[in-house]
């Protein structure tokens, strides 16, 4: 399209740049085809051809058919569609409403095409025989193709007697071919021909794609020994007479042959294959290959072959069809899955559909192992929808996930971790290990399910809800409702919905937990009767949200900007009001006197001003300022109602968790949270809620005393897994609904050690400092807390309360220095002590507007709003003011050299820079001044390297045009001093929206972007390697470190610092100095 339709490429690029949902195939159709075409001016008609629709290899052909029927009519009028397919029943039904032109076998123009084809292939055939052959083709070009080829080979002359050589129709052609095979086998192996022939029919019928000959003979019971060589070759030769061999694989030349063998659209004949028997034979052959792979001393010794390739691609499907529970361990075999992903970029099996089968028939080992495959398949699907610059293979993501202990749902019982690490290390593959991932993993999974037993690749409609009594879970997926029992998560029933009501906006239970409503109030689902029943038949069909009163007699509904209150028994409207804005959420207060509503928030963070409280009888709005309360009037004895945004509210995660309370006119108190959280519950005699933050850390939050009282780390999942819903069940159980249709019930346990709790909810970490020996890292947060963490394991070893809010810190050989508002303090450092820091010592008073830089003993501060700066340096363990050059240069950012004897100043607006160096004990001089070669570039990061007389700088820049244009490339360059000569400049294969840059050495930097880190060579601008470290929010504008001597990466963000060990990196970075 980009090459053939003028302007299409530009319109496609514009559409892709904008934020879009990529959750469904229809979304992809709209983004990649429909919207760009509609954006073009009307033009001459163009034709889009979808050829051989019946040969689609997708397992769910109906998905593509639905796309054609639902979305293709929305294309511009000047776009014409031509779809060709065999007239399968499924295709006919789906496309009937489009009034397709069906080319019938006896259609005049179709016969004319056949006639042209035959005349071209057999120019000497007279018209009478051509007409006879056309008649025998019965409209099939396949028959015509093989017929003319046979006639050519027979060389029967110009006027052959076609009735002697050509069977009638394609079915007759197949019967003749397989009759020849039967006759050939009877002559060659008269004693065993019957069993060989039957097994051949069965295996070919079940194969569905070219079948390697070694695998085929194995399925028919022959060994690969030399004694049976002659017999094998004889049989293969006979078979190849009817089915061609390509690349040592027996090839079925058309799908219709499989249909014929299985009587799919054909009348009964003598050569019907038993698919079930063929599947069993194929699985046995594949399992033998699997055993051979598993017996290798190392998976690196594996050599691909046609039969091994076939087994890796298809073995899992045959295993699921056979359903032998004892063999399900092959689905979670790390070696096999590694090879599948390496050679096919896919696991080649649908896991979700068998989990309920596994739950009943398989031991926990297999069941939980298959869950990890389902998780990973969903992760792969999501990754493929993302636009990314990384080129790491998907098998690397799989192995690294297992090597980090992810998906170990039964806590080290599956033994995937060591196998994955062994493969990574033996292959010298670079991978990242998160240090300290096992802290506070004090939970046990007591039940689990996958919602949506009928899986589709792109779901458009799904919703979930818990019953008020916490005994049932309901889920809607496409047109099916599933109801599960809690906490066992055993399915109670499933029900097909009679009418699809658009994308799921809400799903709720009635207060008595006996009925379920979704998207409308016209009908509901009765739990007792397990069927749909009327509720308010004349009510609105399309409802955005609704809520019952506590007694169930009233119902509030919202249709965009229209709110109605209904009498459920009388099925009548009590009151209605039209609002100024659309409302996405409304609910009755527990006292039923008020209705709490929230406006549609679009793409922005949660705002308490979006909440509206209405009087339930009149729907008059209550002034929030009059009922909002900032006093500490909450108590542990009261029951509180809370409303919180759904997990879909973007950016709410980045705000500090906050709960506000409001005094309703009835005297009751309502709570409102700015992040998704559970309902209030009692934990250790305190009123609490649970919410999740990065890395699947669950925090038990005491909202009366505004403090976190407990942490739980769900460490068996990748840290970017999103939580859709959480709720407290009973005393110790927690219901958790995750993004990939996964539901867990966790049993929480109070940790025996409280010292290992990491600071996962520090509201604002202001600065980090690394100890001289790279053993410890100091973290100073806005709440005046200083924590010392071990680099080895991420544990918090010591906590110190600061007297003033910190602004910057740095670690010398003898002291940890902390710059606070108005004062600089230092702590004696002794790495041999349990508490490595001693008591606080005050060094000097200091006044400043902001700290520009504190590194290598050099402190640069901004004195006032006019950007005047001052410089101080640590000498003899004291901080002394420095004499700086007389200059009007107003720096906006600073870089300090590693020897602490030079600083590089940069001014953002002018793109000017200056280099200052120390000339004597406390006097600094201006050495160089210049301007970036491309002043329009924006500087993302820069640093100063080298020593006196040989200094250089590294710059990471980009040309910024618009936030809506993420495609601006990133550039890396270096400038030498004192010449100010730009010695290198390279455009990187990365877009400009990066998170940060980390200095490694004078020729290597690390760029962190989205969930990936890139090791970049400064001299040539090439990416050395890329690594997936997961999505870690809040990493901007805070320090990160790379410790080359230990291959450790420390990513410090506004909430926490994450420790990574990079394995096998040494061979790729030979130039890195081991500090």
TrEMBL record:
UniProt-listed InterPro entries: NPHP3-like_N, WD40/YVTN_repeat-like_dom_sf, WD40_repeat_dom_sf
Domain of life: Eukaryota
Domain Nephrocystin 3-like N-terminal: 10-86
Keywords of the record: Ligase, Repeat
Listed GO MF terms: ligase activity
Bilayer-crossing regions: none
Name of the featured protein: E3 ubiquitin- ligase DZIP3
Gene source species: Paramuricea clavata
